[in-house]
From TrEMBL:
Record keywords, A-Z: Signal
Name listed for the protein in its UniProt record: Uncharacterized protein
Superkingdom field: Bacteria
Leader sequence segment: 1-25
Lineage: Bacteria, Pseudomonadati, Pseudomonadota, Alphaproteobacteria, Rhodobacterales
């Protein structure tokens, strides 16, 4: 496994220089302290190349630390569990919650309640498995704050004909079908660090 991690780290370093796509940040208010993880798990940290350190957490979730020439540290984390990146799922559920709130005719009452339950379940999972974990009492206020702040930034006119509204409706409905619900259940079944990558 260590050999695979080192190979993955080297490939990730090469790809960082070749790909221009931005690394998505953790959901605001539910961030992981990656620097602290490298400190608290120092004995498990590997250094496959100068300026790069790698830490494998249960899942596995692999965290990369790249140090720039000015000493600035950049972190990215990838979920290799096969159950999906919990942070990415959480981010998508927040977007869905915001859009459903701005366009209430997209979902009926039953589907809206189901989406709310899924979002809250993922929020609790992310809070419990974040580094550091969030207190249970902080989950609901932070979730409400994230939804409120994101809703203030999104501009959606409802109903259609605005471009994208029908696509949003299809995405919302897909998340609430058995396949989407099953994916969420699989994601919640394995405690692991909630990270944003891979995020399609």
């Amino acid at each position: 496994m260590k050999t695979l991690v080192l190979i993955a780290a080297l490939l990730a370093g090469l790809l960082t220089g070749l790909l221009a796509g931005p690394v998505r940040a953790d959901v605001a208010g539910f961030e992981n302290d990656y620097r602290a993880l490298f400190t608290s798990h120092a004995g498990r940290v590997q250094q496959p190349a100068p300026g790069m350190r790698v830490l494998e957490m249960p899942g596995p979730v692999i965290i990369y630390e790249d140090t720039a020439s000015d000493g600035t540290r950049h972190y990215r984390a990838e979920d290799h569990s096969g159950r999906g990146a919990a942070g990415c799922m959480f981010d998508a559920l927040i977007d869905a919650t915001v859009i459903a709130g701005l366009c209430p005719d997209m979902l009926d009452a039953t589907s809206s309640a189901q989406l709310d339950a899924m979002t809250r379940a993922m929020a609790r999972f992310v809070a419990a498995n974040a580094a550091p974990p969030l207190p249970v009492r902080a989950v609901e206020p932070r979730l409400r704050s994230v939804v409120r702040e994101r809703a203030a930034r999104i501009r959606v006119r409802c109903p259609a004909p605005v471009s994208g509204v029908q696509d949003n409706r299809a995405r919302l409905q897909a998340m609430l079908r058995p396949g989407g619900i099953g994916a969420l259940k699989r994601a919640l079944a394995m405690p692991r660090l909630p990270v944003m990558q891979p995020c399609d």
